[in-house]
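ARCHIVE CARD
Drawer: 12
Card no.: 0347
Subject: one protein chain, sequence and derived structure
Cross-reference: see card 0346
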Amino acid sequence: MRTNRASISKEQEAEMGTTTRVEREHRDSKGKRPRRRRRILVAVLGAALVLLVVAAFAIRTPASVGHWESQEGQDRFMSAYAAAFDELPEPAETLDVRTDYGFVRVYRFSGTGDAEHPLLLLPGTSSATPVWADNLPSLLALGDVITLDLLGEPGMSVQERPITSEEDQAAWLAETLRELPQEAFHVVGLSIGGWSATNLALHDPSNIATLTLIDPAVTLDDIPLETALRSLPAAVPWLPKSWRDSFNSYTAGGAPVEDVPVADMIEAGMQHYSLKIPQPARISEERLASIDLPVLVILAGDSVMLDAENASAVAERALPHATVHVYDGASHAVNGEEPERIAKDIEELIT
């Protein structure tokens, strides 16, 4: 019988400088939000990816672990996080799971479906749990959903020790899954979360039932040069907020991002949090071929983080058990543009 060491940490609450409990009420479930609203809420997903793929890692000052540059910046992020979290259903459980690298914030949402294993959602960099607001209603119809904030990123997780390699990246995530009571998970990774999910499958697939990669960055294709160049100004924290908003909008097919809580949260994290994690490296086809799991790959036809045609060819050629779908006309913010379609494709995978 495993001992679950997941618990709320007083140490973490002091580190974060704010309460770890996010207070909110159930949002009104009547009707659907307009499509444009769905796009706006997740349009910012691609924005934070810049910090992982270009010069941001070189620009920011040396340190052993990720940290906030100022109390004011942290407070601004936490305020936006709480506002964005109000878009989510009430979690049934909130945990801070201790790992060798720090505390990982985990939320469990109770679903209505009968999936044998819960879905585990990994967000893109700097986006944290609130980026899944538009996906949770349709995914909860499949079963329980667990989300987490990536360690070493702005969010409620707190990094305490250096993460210096892809092995470390896989280790903290594997430790987190082992400390949860569930035995296996349908792991779903969005953007750089797709890279994290794939990296976990390569190093420790023992708790993975299936793998879903949603427009995964630096996993099946390289970041296009134009996107890398456009990201440079957004990676400089002292430049105006409008520069980061402009890049975020570019990644989401031109959708507006101003004055949206989840966009404000991501922009605040980009500006005020100093990342100290290694830049992810493109995964080779030889390594992809070793993944002996059912894999669903969802690619955005108009993504600026990859070339959908190239990525599709790599997935079909390298992954031995892959189902690949290209959503024509979708941007890198595909999870907010096509939440019901994504849920349907995931349902086919897990059943």
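Annotation on reverse: The chain has a mean pLDDT of 82. The first strand starts at residue 67 and ends at 68.
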